[in-house]
Amino acid sequence: MKEEKPIIVVGAGIIGLFTAYYLLQEGEKVLVLDKGTGQDGCSFGNAGMVVPSHFIPLAAPGMIEKGIKWMFDSESPFYIKPRMSLSLMKWGFSFYKAANQKKVDNAIPVLRDIGLLSKKLYQDLNHKKLFDFSFEEKGLLMLCKSEEALHEETEVAALANKIGIEARVLTKQEVCDLEPEIKPDVSGGVFFTGDTHLYPNQLVAELRKYLIAAGVEIKFDTELIDIECNSTAVERLKVRESNGEPYLLEAKKVVLATGSWSEQVGKQINLNIPVQAGKGYSLTNPQVAGKELFTPSIFVEARVAITPMLDQIRFGGTMEIGGINAEINKNRVNGILKAIPKYFPEYEVPYPAENKIWSGLRPCSPDGMPYIGQHQRYKNLYFNTGHAMMGISLATGSGKLISELVTNKKLSMSTQDFSIHRFD
Ligand SMILES: Cc1cc2nc3c(=O)[nH]c(=O)nc-3n(C[C@H](O)[C@H](O)[C@H](O)COP(=O)(O)OP(=O)(O)OC[C@H]3O[C@@H](n4cnc5c(N)ncnc54)[C@H](O)[C@@H]3O)c2cc1C
């Protein structure tokens, strides 16, 4: 009997793994490929927040002005490295076109729905106890130093409550009650009660272990180098293991979950799927006795995220659009560290040894929406990528939606706004 061809998922980051998970739930045979070693990547050292409160896309009115101001500050949270790159120029132009109120108004209910779907799926997973990922439902505190930032966040809170995401505006005292050991020095904050968080390093490792035990094959050190198609479908993938000769793999269907490399991969099939890598950094330290942080928070002006994870505390931030590389920009890391005592006066984090600084490349689409969809011409080819700052948050929902598309099931929500052809 002829052996059944697998559905091949390219990319073993969190998006590829949850794609595999939900395909497995549909009874599919799944093979996952990744060119890396599986030891690190963007899905590991991130802030682990699962936050339906993030319903406003990055490409929003005012962001371009803010971005230009930040460009002149070497320690600011956002930076675009100037370089001669047609792909960067096109991405920037698409960002500019998306950063208007009409597009944002359209995006808000869609991001809310996929955010809530994803959170619900994480809750279900946590309930099932198939594997542990230290899921906690403690909310998210948006901490504002200035009255101006608090005013802006208060407006976001009002909008959140209007669309069904609970948000409470807190006084300085109420913020301090939530963080009694740290006593934040802020003008106030907004508390999104329904947000949650998890430990991403554990999630990736445990989910992978679960998938392998359940029969999913995962091949690392295996790079997709070409996609062979006939006029309507993908026939084979050409792959290569390090230093080895290329070879061909037959696939029933293919899902590309290739993160920051997706634009390059898209070129193999003449698909324009703009993605820029947005580098961020994080540091993870043990919690300090007597100065324990309890609630995940974000410093609003500094754009630094702080997440308690088991007995550790992780500080993460910065969005550096500078191509695909792993260079550590010390000024940006300093920007994160200097922000900490501004909000938490009794808390200092010294500059760490270089090997303690983690960096990851967020796959950023120009309009702040992920790409989740089917190729119009090659009907057995799909993309699930472009989740930028939200890949952990939206991984379950995106994995579920792509599995429903691939297996022709009723969709949990419309995927129209995630079309992979919207920039074609
Ligand atoms: C500092 C920081 C903090 C963050 N905090 C949060 C947070 O709190 N909440 C949240 O939701 N998100 C957060 N994020 C974003 C989140 O980490 C990403 O959105 C997510 O990890 C992206 O997952 P991915 O699977 O798409 O990409 P990746 O994890 O990068 O996986 C893509 C994989 O594809 C493989 N690949 C690429 N090309 C090929 C090829 N040709 N052949 C084979 N394999 C290939 C790569 O090797 C890689 O392993 C943060 C990111 C950073 C940097």
UniProtKB/TrEMBL annotation:
Record keyword Flavoprotein present: yes
Transmembrane segments: 7-24
Top-level division of the source organism's lineage: Bacteria
Cofactor requirements of the protein: FAD
Entry's EC annotation: 1.-.-.-
All residue ranges annotated as the FAD dependent oxidoreductase domain in the record: 7-405
UniProt GO MF annotations: oxidoreductase activity
Pfam families: DAO
Keywords from the named record: Flavoprotein, Membrane, Oxidoreductase, Transmembrane, Transmembrane helix
Keyword Nucleus: no
Annotated InterPro entries: FAD-dep_OxRdtase (IPR006076), FAD/NAD-bd_sf (IPR036188)
Family: Belongs to the DadA oxidoreductase family.
Name assigned to this protein: NAD(P)/FAD-dependent oxidoreductase
Organism: Lacihabitans lacunae
